[in-house]
Amino acid sequence: MSNAELNELKQKYVAAGAASPATAFADRAENAEIWDADGNRFIDFAGGIGVLNVGHRHPKVVAAVKAQLDKLMHTCQTVMPYEGYVKVAERLSHLVPVRGHAKVMLANSGAEALENAVKIARAATGRSNVICFDGGYHGRTFYTMAMNGKVAPYQSDFGPMPGTVFRAPYPVPYHGVSEDEAIRGLKMTLKTDANPKDTAAIVLEPVLGEGGFYPASKSFLEKIREICDEHGMLMIIDEVQSGFGRTGKMFAIEHSGVEPDIMTMAKSMADGMPISAVVGTDKVMDASGPNSLGGTYTGSPTACAAALAVMEVFEEDNILEKSRALGEKLAARFGEWQTKFDCIDNVRNMGAMAAFELISNKTDRTPNPELAAALCKKAREEGLILLSCGMYGNTIRFLMPVTIEDSVLNEGLDIIESCLESLI
């Protein structure tokens, strides 16, 4: 079917809240390129929102999924378990830097992982409160919507959110929130809203994802660890977007050396197959009773096969090294743009998790979300899929596959530069 025919069906049958505004429909893809239903080619700087760190249809992952389909598609692992689930758990327990011996549960999505992380923290502590941060994003289920540090579009139309979720400032010095102010804000939250004796966990992203790609400093993460230890709260690190090699290490928290009690991950874990994980210290993970965790499709055989293949690809293809190299290339180009364009500022990257701000002027750092939207729209018209994000909607983020070829990368960056020249 053509793009036009598919758009007609979309308008008629897909719920407005779930329908993409895009009018081109993906038909096939390879590494960092997508072709739509009409045969038009796009360079993919979005990676399915950070899902495709090893690229569209990595051959090793495709082969693993095909082989699994010839053996077993489903039993529900709580009814009759299978090798893939326990092998993924084994691999993750050795990869994830939580305190002590790690145990694992698998789920289907980042939101499911966060929901279960909170359940586990409550069971382990006997407490109910959770503290999250401004700008944080944790999912679209009801509890994770309440955890999100941004109202629109995630909470706007859905009535009251669940209680016992409290907020603290996230340090973004560029926008006037220093690390000291963020820590003071957190301590005030613990005094005025969330009694530490009733608080199960502090949940945060080591690099804000939807909130704007702002990394937390080593010292800030160390202070969160200290506060959690002081009050007997658990530290939950959300690596759904920053994990699996995006930042040049397997997980962003590794840059700090801080060991959390629980970590969540999803997205690039299985190169597009739906899977997520909660990994935590064994005593914490074992706190809830039999059959208290799980779901019909959690850790499906095909998704586990893909995840195991992805972890092999990381080793065989030096993905972490490629992530660091990609980050250096992006940083160099961003530096050129910051000098050339007055509208670009605060260029930053942690490995290949890279972004810059679009602003009205560099004196007062006024965010320019209109220019960000125009740039993404213009880039799409020129064959480049590009995403914005951030509390102010003015951050341009880069989530292309880490495996992108240099020629394709440079072609995409050239499109951005050309679009900026035409827009300002």
What's the quick description here?
The chain is α/β, with parallel strands linked by helices.
Run of helices and strands: HEEEHHHEHEHEHEHEEEHHHEEHEEEH
Arithmetic mean pLDDT: 97
Helical content band: 25-40%
CATH architecture field of the largest domain: 3-Layer(aba) Sandwich
The major β-sheet equals: 7 strands, mixed
Low-confidence residue ranges: none
N- and C-termini, Cα separation: 37 Å
The number of strands is 15
CATH topology category name of the largest domain? Aspartate Aminotransferase, domain 2
CA-atom Rg in angstroms: 21 Å
- Form type: globular
**What's the CATH class of the largest domain, please?**
Alpha Beta
Task: Provide a descriptive summary of the structure in words.
The chain is 38% helix and 17% strand. By secondary structure, it is of the alpha/beta class. It has helices at 3-13, 47-50, 59-69, 83-95, 110-125, 142-147, 179-192, 218-231, 282-285, 301-316, 319-340, 369-381, 406-423, and strands spanning 26-30, 33-36, 41-44, 102-107, 129-133, 165-168, 199-204, 234-238, 262-265, 276-281, 344-350, 353-358, 384-385, 387-389, 395-398. The chain has a 7-stranded mixed β-sheet with strand order 4-10-9-8-7-5-6, with helices on both faces. The chain is globular, with a radius of gyration of 21 Å. It has 2 domains: 3-57 and 318-423, Aspartate Aminotransferase, domain 1 (Alpha-Beta Complex); 72-317, Type I PLP-dependent aspartate aminotransferase-like (Major domain) (Aspartate Aminotransferase, domain 2, 3-Layer(aba) Sandwich). Helix 3 (59-69) packs antiparallel against helix 10 (301-316), helix 4 packs across helix 10 and helix 12 crosses helix 13. InterPro entries: 4NH2But_aminotransferase_bac (IPR004632), Aminotrans_3 (IPR005814), Aminotrans_3_PPA_site (IPR049704), Class-III_PLP-dep_AT (IPR050103), PyrdxlP-dep_Trfase (IPR015424), PyrdxlP-dep_Trfase_major (IPR015421), PyrdxlP-dep_Trfase_small (IPR015422). It comes from Halomonas hydrothermalis. Keywords: Aminotransferase, Pyridoxal phosphate, Transferase. Belongs to the class-III pyridoxal-phosphate-dependent aminotransferase family. Its cofactor is pyridoxal 5'-phosphate.
